[in-house]
Write a structure and sequence with these properties.
Elements lengths: L13 E7 L3 E8 L5 E8 L22 E2 L2 H18 L6 E8 L4 E4 L20 E2 L7 H13 L17 H11 L1 H6 L2 E4 H10 L4 E2 H7 L10 H7 L6 H6 L3 E2 L4 E4 L2 H7 L6 E3 L4 H8 L7 E6 L3 E7 L10 E4 L7 E7 L3 H10 L3 H9 L4 H10 L9 E3 L17 E3 L7 H25 L6 E5 L6 H11 L3 E4 L4 H13 L6 H8 L2 E6 L3 H22 L5 H18 L23
Parallel strand pairs: 1-5, 5-12, 9-10, 13-19, 19-20
Antiparallel strand pairs: 1-2, 2-3, 4-7, 6-8, 11-12, 13-14, 14-16, 15-16, 17-18, 20-21
Length: 587
Amino acid sequence: MADPQFKTAPDDRFVIGVDYGTLSGRALVVRVSDGAEIATATHDYSHAVMDTLLAASGASLPPEWALQVPSDYVDVLKTAVPEAVRIAGIDPSQVVGIGTDFTASTPLPVLADGTPLNELPEYADRPHAYVKLWKHHAAGGQADRINMLAAERAESWLPRYGGFISSEWEFAKGLQLLEEDRELYDRMDHFVEAADWIVWQLTGRYVKNACTNGYKAIYQDDAYPSEEFLAALNPNFAGFAREKIAHEIGQLGASAGTLTAQAAEWTGLPEGIAVAVGNVDAHVSAPAAKAVEPGQMVAIMGTSTCHVMNSDVLTEVPGMCGVVDGGIVAGLYGYEAGQSGVGDIFAWYVKNQVPARYHDEAASAGQSIHQYLTDLAASQPVGGHGLLALDWHSGNRSVLVDHELSGLVVGATLATRAEEVYRALLEATAFGTRKIVETFGASGVPVTEFIAAGGLIKNPFLMQTYSDILRMPVSTIASDQGPALGSAIHAAVAAGAYPDVRSAGEVMGKLDRAVYTPNPHSADAYDLLYEEYSLLHDYFGRGANEVMHRLKARKREALAAALRDGHETTLSGTVEADDATKSEVGA
């Protein structure tokens, strides 16, 4: 049922925002005139994330792999979009545009007409033929080589990415594809981001978006890394940018084309309406949170956290994921940082580490296990659990840019309870965010306002913890669907309803300011814990002790040996917190 508080009129115009997350896609119907969110619908990907087994063959995948099936993305258009329109109770003819956003970097190899290689029968059992999800970290070795060579050659683009290229990004994943499955590398015509592939399916036109291209494809000063550089990595990689990556680039908020007849049949929307240039889920959320002015940092908190902010200053921030001119809105430099695991960490803990009696007690109390643990943990004073954790269960994205790092909990005793470890993990993610905020400030890009978005903002204790640890007020987006709303805002601009994204966001965006403010006593206590966090952060993360790297290497060696010897083995996978909302952390 549509939200009853919104009364629609026959002359109202609407746009659709489609947010593609880690496990599902959701469509949101938004009124153009005021940003009212009329109705939403979600479709879960039938193949979810393939991180242990390849669905087509049942073959085991090595550690650090994370694949998806592109047809799942089209199914979102076929199911969630028409369902959202039906629930909204509007005439589809009132819809004037559609916009989309995606996790990134999430590339896939395709033919010249956009056909994914996994859809060719001869390649269905080849892992490299599928989408490499953002959290595919198996290209770590390739990323290390890119970083070392770029540092040796003093490549001018390297400082724009905080001095490190991530294994999550296009070039590392493309190099892995070349070196592990040359036949597929040669067969593909484009290595395309899913954000652009889905727009291609909607419009029949391949248009790259400036956001993903700048942050994830090393596009700086109108150029990709040189062929000389790429050849030094691997002679057969020399033409990667020119042959597999380069294409028309669309600016954010612009129209990539219009809805084709086929896409109109899928979605039930009118053929010929505007389709916005694609975007990244985090960056597209900034105008939805009215956070596009310099100094406003938006943290989109879900499975992972992505931190984005604008500035009128171009500078180098250690460990940032990138800075792109116009990467969020035109006329400003868009900065990005992030944490690879946040909601994922909480979900992993409750699924694998919390005793069954806690789950039973939560059910008896009519609470989610996350809320039950939160309530138990909240009664303790700061530091009362005697614990400290590192939030690296999915590696460290910022500021260390090292996915070979792993999680750690220090201080456990025989008296430590499950809720205490849970609280330590919540606090660890806030400490990681403070490390990012302080690094930006020390680099001349101060954070003047911290704005939280995503599903985890539903947990008041978590938000208060962030405010205390950051020593800053925390504002929150006044929408449960930040990325989808942001995509709808871009659709409105593409349809010509607003002149630009900033003005559209001012009308259609939603923000509750300073919902949480620091408790001085708690903030003082957290300062002491943060000092200890920083010691562990630098000791394990900056080379003083390489034990985490060695353990990861030994794990890979042991599993590879077991597979070679034909032994039965269970490959550990990841636990999804589902995009921004499926985790019960905020329930």
